Amino acid sequence: MFRGFSSVSLDSKGRLAVPSRYRERLMGIAGGCLVQTLNPLDRSLWLYPLPEWELIEEKLAVLSDFDKQSRRAKQMMRGYATDCQLDTHGRILVHAELRNYAQLDKQAIILGQGNKFEIWNRAGWDEQRDHWLSLVGDEEGTPTVTLQSLSL
């Protein structure tokens, strides 16, 4: 559904413009209603169209509160979930607490991740991406066993 990389700016009020290539689709599937939350795995945010977020909530609901990792995932993802709406200029206001968590300032990037977007601080993304790329293969550049099974 959503794929690609976009560089965006945040204005002084913490708003960012969703890339125009996604706006019509977001209006069609969600009426511009989105949910932002923190990514509990990386220092970034997740941005879901509302119908996709509702599917995530269903999956979270079946996780046991007696399993510590499940409970923490629910606390983080649900606890920080914030509704937002595309405005007439295709922007969303990124909640201040979430901006702080993801260390978002003036420059950010948006990565399409299928059913959602990831929003990263630009410098943080560049550093993390370079680190991940350095781990793809061994010293000779041979891909890991997992990547060897991936047919591209």
Share of helix among residues? Answer: 25-40%
Mean pLDDT: 92
* Helix/sheet category: alpha+beta
**Radius of gyration, in angstroms, nearest whole number:** 17 Å
First-residue to last-residue Cα separation: 19 Å
Query: What is the overall number of helices?
Result: 6
Low-confidence runs of at least 5 consecutive residues: none
Largest sheet: 6 strands, antiparallel
Order of helices and strands: EEHEEHHEEHEEHH
Order of strands across the biggest sheet? 1-7-8-4-3-5
Q: What would the principal axes of the Cα set say about the shape?
A: globular
Q: What is the subunit organization of this protein?
A: single chain
The share of residues in extended strands comes to 25-35%
How many strand elements? 8
Overview of the structural elements:
With 152 residues, the chain is an alpha+beta fold. The chain has 6 helices and 8 strands. It has helices at residues 20-30, 50-61, 68-79, 96-102, 122-134, 145-148; strands spanning 2-9, 15-17, 33-38, 45-49, 82-85, 91-93, 107-114, 117-121. A 6-stranded antiparallel sheet has the order 1-7-8-4-3-5. The chain has a two-stranded antiparallel sheet with strand order 2-6. It is globular and about 50 Å long. The protein starts with a strand and ends with a helix.
